[in-house]
Structures are given as structure tokens and as C-alpha cells.
Amino acid sequence: MTEAKLNLDYFRQKLLELRDKLEALQSTVDEAAQTVELDQARVGRLSRMDALQAQSMSIEVQRRQNLQLRSIAAALSRINNNDYGLCPECDTSIHPERLKLDPTTRLCIACAEAKER
Questions:
Q1: Cβ atoms 93, 4 nearer than 8 A
Q2: What is the pLDDT of residues 70-93, one digit of tens each?
Q3: Residue 109: its H or E element
Q4: Three-state DSSP class for 55?
Q5: For 26-75, how does the pLDDT look when each residue is reduced to its tens digit (9 = 90+)?
Q6: Which of 66, 84, 92, 103 sits at a 20 to 30 Å CA gap from 8?
Q7: Which residues, at least 6 apart from 106, have a Cβ–Cβ distance to it below 8 Å?
Q8: 33: which DSSP letter?
Q9: Are the beta carbons of 62 and 33 closer than 8 angstroms?
Q10: pTM for this structure?
């Protein structure tokens, strides 16, 4: 019991730290994703294009961060429901090293590879 609990505590802590980092970065990304002002008198055409490109990249970063935050919330929910570390496709245990690399992973290697094909 203690070993499994210690592992769950380790992964819970890792997930919470990752969530905190992403939430801290979110305000910076939110600012960069704001609407670009299109005042030609103040900003040249190339500068506006650069600003629009930077805005598009920030919006994509924001989208990916939101996906990752949802994955973290789902993983924390699996920990609370005692489903963490079990592949929902085949009901086998996910290797702890795989979980260390990505604590939000849901699938074992075999099922993940099968989904990619």
C-alpha cells in the first residue's frame, strides 16, 4: 500500500507543479494573444505583419496550454478515482517510466502505438 501511495503522491505533486507553471505562464501568453492594433500611421506594414504572426503563435501556445491543463485535470481526477496508471483501452498498467516522462499519459505504449496507425 505505501509504495503505491507514494507513487500516487509523487505523480500528484508532479502534476500540480506542472499545472502551477502553466497557469503562471498563462498571463504572459494572454497578453501576447491580444488583438493587434492596425494603425498604419503608427506602425509600418511589416511591423504589423510581424505583430500578427506573433499574435497567431501566442494563440496557438494558449490553445496548447489549455489542452495540457485539461490533461492535467483529467490525470488528477484519475488519481482521485484510483484509475491513474491503468490503460483504459486494455486495462493493463502503464509503465512508471512512461508516466515519469509524461504524467498525463492515458495509454500504455502498445495502445498508443495502435492508435497512431
A1: no
A2: 999 999 999 999 999 999 999 999
A3: helix 109-116
A4: helix
A5: 877 666 555 555 555 555 656 777 777 877 888 888 899 999 999 999 99
A6: 66
A7: 74, 75, 78, 87, 88
A8: T
A9: yes
A10: 0.74
